[in-house]
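Purpose: get a first structural picture of the assembly so the mutagenesis plan has something to point at.
Setup: two entries, given in the order below. No constraints added.
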Amino acid sequence: MARIDLDGVSVTFPIYDSRRRSLKNRLIAAGTGGRIEYRTASETDIEALADVSFALADGARVGLVGHNGAGKSTLLRVLAGIYAPCSGTIHVQGHIAPLFDISLGIDPEASGYENILIRGLFLGLSRREVKAKTEEIAEFTELGSFLDLPVRTYSTGMQLRLAFAVATAIDPEILLIDEGIAAGDAAFLEKANARLRAFASKASIIVLASHANQLIREICDSAILLEQGRVLMRGPVEEVLAAYEARRSK
Amino acid sequence: MREHVGTGAPGGIAAGSQWQRALGDVVAGAARFSLWSLLGSKEIRQRYRRSRLGPLWVTLSMGVTVGALGFVYGALFGQPLEAYLPFLAAGFVVWGLISGLVLDGTKAFTDSDGMILQLAAPLSVHVYRVVWSNLLIFAHNIVVFLIVAAWFGVLPGWHVLYAVAGVAIVLLNGVWLGLFLGTVCARFRDVPQIVASVVQILFFITPILWRPEMLPDRALFLGLNPFYHFVELVRAPLLGGVPEATTLAVVALVTLGGWLVTLMAFARYRWRIAYWV
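Result (structure tokens, whole complex):
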């Protein structure tokens, strides 16, 4: 049973310039009553999500659409439990697989096999479970003996294959996908999409953030339109995409 | 990762549950032994991957340092080598462990930003990684002391068990240090440099190169230096003695106080770390 409940979730990012990143400056400012540090701007905060509420139950396949910076990636990170909301509550039940910016968390100095193991352990698999899946992962990547070499020797496409294969090797109940994965050569993309579809048919909740409307049409049955961190609209895929297109062409 | 409940900022949710979550993070992180031990060992292996000697470099460079320092400072202080060199080797190796925990602790979270933003694992995993890699380096370095001690015929015997317990306590402190410094340094990016300067100074004012007896009228200065007590905790048994009661008291106090303060800070700011890195 997988379930996601968000109630009034807001996320605000503090934006620090190098000066506000400094403890020395902070102490000097405190010690001199703020006379030395000239405050150019008061605290800058960016509201990435504002009062987002929705509930997803088993079987939900939701597409997130919106401009760059609309809050899609932040929302996915909140769902994954990486960002705790600044206010509001979130309740998530079920095993989560995040498929975000794929290059993040890949260690370029470690070999392909090591990266498979590390990623698997991070996702909460045991050493034995990862070992059992390694062969299948290796096969999917088609990287062969490259898997013994450090990942920094890989081309971007090869890195993508590896990361994608590892990220999709577990059987999650909740699948969170960010658009970044839709890169790579055509042949791989086809294969990746096939795997994604197979993967999607097993997961009980999918949240997919994408600019590739085709992918959303294919996988999702409803969509959420985000703008400036707010939920503007939620409904059937075609209606939401139409509204998104209309706003974009304005 | 079966289930997660989102925090509101402090105030949004009862403070008690923030405590529970901080403690839960520390405990759940510890349970991921296979993950952080792998990350820690990988770090060491990578550092020496392209050299023929591999991690043996750690041992070798420590040996050369101790030899050179012993030769110069032994003469400078007019100390007989057979007493001075084991003292120096033991102190220097233990100092290496303590300062490594402090310095690497400052970067525990900022070095792992990619992992933190990608996967929601307990944050303490990154601190345990630091502690583990420092333990591995220590295991390589202690060989130098054992060789020196064997050479001069002053191997510690069964007192070594006290030293093992001492190292365990140092590591226990390394965990809170990493959680605390890692969190502060994620927010304030100039703290690692400040900490590095302080550690440098501490090395000279802590009796590692020199013996406490050489400074008879500065007893208070020594007594107030917690680093002295942590070095003594392991060094004294390595040299065949036992740590003094004051040392044990200071260590107990620092361990408890450090954990208390850290858990309070971690409970309050843990949820912010992902925003900061």
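The CA atoms of residues 108 and 257 of chain B lie 21 Å apart.
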